[in-house]
Design a protein that fits this description.
By secondary structure, the protein is of the alpha+beta class. The protein is about 35% helix and about 20% strand. It has twelve helices and 13 strands. Strands 4, 5, 6, 7, 8 and 9 form a six-stranded mixed β-sheet that branches. Strands 1-2-3 form a three-stranded antiparallel β-sheet, with no helix packed on it. It binds zinc ion.
Length: about 400
């Protein structure tokens, strides 16, 4: 086939190019579709779901109850409350873990014998240690401090519940008379815990399931999280840009990575699309050989010459045009979702809907979540982005129960 085409490249007639590329299951010229009657096209359009995955379920959050509620927290006695929250992973089970100082055995929960106190603690049984261990000793989020800033564990637990439920500092402050500083530091600590969890789990994400032979839809895009003035060059802007990949119908597959965009002039609307040097290694790492239909916008960097040199087998790239542009000499109008015809390497055919609707929604969530954070405060902003990712992963689950599982995994 190669021999009959002396020059491969742009100026070639459509037909020849098609046959060569199709035989290899590679990327097709933009907008190639078999000739279909209007009725057939409409039928296909209705038949091909945007999210083809069968495991995809829609859950209405307003109809879903969480396993914890403020009423439940109030109804328990102090001892029951500690036992229940330990069972659900919010507190460390010291009976299992042993004394944090010497590793020795600890006593079961015992009550502070002083009058009017309802404090519970464990005590180390080892001679010479006898450490008094509060249930939330050394906790990632709860504090055991003394004095003015001291707040009972149950109140801290309610505050955590409020933060996870999505209340902001002002709303929390109205509901419980706690100072803003404490609320903010709790919220930042929660972000950091989520960040740790995301860092542990993200590398285990696998796109698609090539063993089953199915091709899955994956979307990739980039998003500008914020901008700040450059410290060395005052007339330049630094941009915080993130790239993301997600498998449609699987929110817990959202993968994020930071890109290195160029500095721009002060009035630039954005840093421009992702760079090829940022995208290529990520595509290789996450998508190569995974049998994925990659859906992106029309940015040139995503194309990578995938498959032309067979470096990226297992990826078929479809892209939609978000802005009127010229492709292969023809003007293409923007269309955010469109039907694509794909010839698979094994000879099969597959229609999919191209578009970046799922990841666009993820970006809306990220933007909402990071809105009040300052991107120049790099560390806390990074934690916030990862925290948003964690919430996105768990968005159809009981977020508070998921927080318990997360704390259990992190604290043992
Ligand atoms: Zn001890």
């Amino acid at each position: 086939m190669y021999a009959s085409c002396p020059k491969s490249g742009k100026g070639k007639p459509h037909q020849k190019r098609k046959s060569r590329l199709h035989a290899r299951g590679a990327q097709q010229p933009y907008a190639f579709m078999p000739k279909l009657s209007k009725a057939l096209y409409n039928k296909l359009w209705r038949k091909v779901a945007y999210v083809r995955s069968t495991t995809h379920i829609k859950i209405k959050n307003e109809r879903q109850l969480w396993s914890w509620s403020l009423d439940k927290i109030d109804d328990l006695t102090e001892r029951q409350f500690i036992c229940e929250s330990t069972k659900d992973g919010f507190l460390v089970d010291w009976l299992l873990k042993g004394c944090p100082k010497c590793g020795g055995k600890v006593t079961p929960l015992q009550k502070d014998s002083r009058a009017g106190k309802d404090d519970w603690f464990h005590r180390c049984t080892k001679d010479g240690c006898q450490m008094r261990i509060l249930p939330h000793h050394g906790h990632l989020i709860f504090r055991t401090g003394k004095g003015k800033s001291w707040k009972p564990l149950r109140l801290q637990f309610k505050l955590l519940f409020g933060i996870v439920a999505g209340l902001n500092t002002v709303q929390l402050h109205r509901l419980w008379p706690v100072n803003e500083k404490m609320l903010r530091s709790m919220s930042i600590d929660l972000d950091k815990a989520r960040q740790l969890d995301v860092q542990q789990k993200e590398p285990q994400i696998k796109f698609g399931c090539p063993e089953e032979g199915k091709w899955v839809d994956v979307e990739a895009d980039e998003f500008d999280a914020g901008k700040s003035l450059d410290a060395n060059e005052p007339a330049k802007l630094n941009w915080e840009q993130w790239g993301g990949i997600i498998q449609r119908g699987v929110p817990e597959s959202l993968v994020l990575f930071k890109t290195r965009p160029k500095k721009t002039k002060l009035r630039a609307p954005g840093p421009g699309p992702i760079k090829k040097t940022d995208w290529y290694p990520k595509a290789k790492k996450w998508l190569k050989g995974r049998k994925v239909m990659l859906h992106t916008d029309g940015a040139r960097s995503y194309k990578l010459g995938i498959n032309r040199k067979r470096r990226m087998d297992g990826i078929i790239h479809n892209y939609v045009v978000h802005r009127k542009k010229k492709i292969n000499g023809r003007w293409v109008h923007p269309k955010f979702v469109r039907l694509f015809y794909n010839r698979l390497p094994d000879g099969g055919e597959l229609y999919t809907k191209g578009g970046t609707q799922v990841i666009d929604r993820a970006w809306r969530h990220m933007r909402e979540f990071t809105r009040h954070r300052n991107p120049t405060d790099t560390r806390s902003f990074l934690a916030r982005v990862r925290s948003a990712q964690w919430v996105y992963w768990n968005m159809h689950k009981d977020l508070f129960a998921a927080t318990g599982h997360m704390l259990k995994a992190l604290q043992g």
